[in-house]
């Protein structure tokens, strides 16, 4: 019997790549462009392996309808869209793709910092309007400023390396500090409170856990410098969006650049009719995004930091190797619940 592998959230390149990696009569491939929750379960309920990207959500209810499932291949580093505890209870293993964002996300975070610091959205608007007022376009340099990095995994370390080469002073917070790497990249670990109080730029590279949800909130925003800017290329739920909106309105901080935001998956998945029938929570999240999109000191980006040719090639190849490893009895990049 062939092994049924179902892929979701796929692009044309991914389809071609996975068809190349899994050829022959040993495999039956089911490839869907849509997230798993938008595909009828009967189309893939015999799958032994499924692979998903971040728009797909896998919970205990969905898993209960997949009696043959033994492996989930996440095409991402974070797996907060997968109920790992439910998978463990059912004996379903999970693999992820660590490291693909090390360079591409780090570069994007620095790009967002530069765009905010030099008021690039306003610059572009002025050029389009044909009316330049330089006084309104005055920004600040990153050189000499203090960068606070929350989360010093591979991406956070890469950000530290680039920032130091730009002449920034770097401090960081991580519950599991890596002092050897701190010495290598010439930064120091500080408490969260000291980071919030002292940083000119704060960039988030922490995983989403119950402890880190709404790490940026009304209380922490109040102790930041009123000249500080916030960058989030990690997970939207790290930031309490309403608290951020209020802080920006009240000029408690100077600006924010968000590649991820609470409710972004709602926006990705919702059709016009779904939006019309949306519940209060969904409607509130959409309203928050709309408010932020109209603010002059905010840059919104559509979860695009990972999106480079190099990173996508790495994701495709690593996912294929993870699945092949599982099928041969070797778990690569295993995620522990």
Describe it:
- With 337 residues, the chain is an alpha/beta fold.
- It has two domains: 3-100 and 310-327, 3-Layer(aba) Sandwich (Rossmann fold), CATH 3.40.50.720; 102-300, Rossmann fold (3-Layer(aba) Sandwich), CATH 3.40.50.
- It is 39% helix and 14% strand.
- It is built from 14 helices and twelve strands.
- It has helices at residues 12-21, 60-63, 84-89, 101-117, 120-129, 154-165, 179-184, 192-198, 218-222, 241-249, 264-269, 272-276, 280-293, 309-327, and strands spanning 3-7, 27-31, 49-52, 71-74, 93-95, 146-150, 169-173, 188-189, 201-204, 229-232, 255-258, 298-300.
- The strands form two sheets. Strands 8-7-6-9-10-11-12 form a seven-stranded parallel beta sheet, with helices on both faces. Strands 2-1-3-4-5 form a five-stranded parallel beta sheet.
- Strand 9, helix 9 and strand 10 (229-232) form a beta-alpha-beta unit.
- Helix 4 packs across helix 6.
- The chain is elongated, with a radius of gyration of 21 Å.
- The two termini are 30 Å apart.
Features:
single chain, 337 residues, alpha/beta, Rossmann fold, 2 domains, seven-stranded parallel β-sheet, five-stranded parallel β-sheet
Any idea what the CATH superfamily of the largest domain is called? NAD(P)-binding Rossmann-like Domain
Unreliable stretches, pLDDT < 50, 5 or more residues? 266-279
Structural class computed from helices and strand pairing: alpha/beta
Helical segment tally? 14
Name the overall outline. Answer: elongated
Q: If you consult CATH, what is the topology of the largest domain? A: Rossmann fold
What's the number of extended β-strand segments? 12
Series of H and E elements: EHEEHEHEHHEHEHEHEHEHEHHHEH
């Amino acid at each position: 019997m062939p092994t049924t592998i179902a892929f979701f959230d796929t692009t044309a390149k991914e389809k071609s790549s996975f068809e190349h990696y899994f050829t022959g009569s040993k495999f039956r491939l089911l490839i869907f462009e849509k997230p798993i929750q938008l595909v009828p379960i009967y189309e893939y309920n015999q799958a032994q392996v499924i692979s998903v990207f971040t728009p797909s959500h896998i919970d205990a209810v969905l898993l209960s309808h997949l009696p043959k499932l033994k492996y989930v291949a996440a095409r991402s580093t974070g797996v907060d869209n997968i109920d790992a505890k439910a998978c463990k209870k059912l004996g379903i293993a999970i693999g992820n793709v660590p490291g693909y964002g090390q360079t591409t996300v780090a570069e994007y975070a620095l790009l967002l910092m530069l765009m905010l610091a030099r008021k690039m959205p306003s610059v572009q608007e002025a050029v389009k309007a044909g009316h330049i007022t330089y006084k309104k376009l005055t920004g600040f340099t990153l050189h000499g400023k203090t960068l606070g990095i929350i989360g010093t995994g591979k991406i956070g370390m890469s950000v530290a390396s680039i920032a130091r080469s730009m002449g920034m002073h770097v401090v960081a917070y991580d519950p599991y500090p890596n002092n050897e790497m701190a010495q290598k990249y010439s930064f120091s670990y500080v408490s969260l409170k000291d980071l919030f109080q002292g940083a000119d730029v704060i960039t988030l590279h922490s995983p989403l856990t119950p402890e880190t949800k709404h790490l940026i909130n009304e209380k922490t925003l109040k102790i930041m410098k009123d000249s500080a800017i916030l960058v989030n290329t990690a997970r939207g739920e790290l930031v309490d969006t309403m608290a951020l909106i209020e802080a920006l309105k009240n000029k408690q901080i100077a600006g924010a650049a968000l590649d991820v935001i609470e409710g972004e998956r709602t926006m990705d998945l919702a059709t016009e009719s779904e939006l019309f029938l949306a519940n209060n929570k969904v409607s509130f999240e959409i309203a928050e995004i709309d408010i932020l999109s109209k603010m002059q000191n905010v840059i919104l980006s559509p979860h695009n930091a990972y999106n480079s040719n190099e990173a996508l090639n790495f994701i495709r190849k690593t996912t294929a190797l993870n699945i092949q490893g599982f099928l041969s009895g070797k778990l690569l990049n295993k995620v522990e619940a």
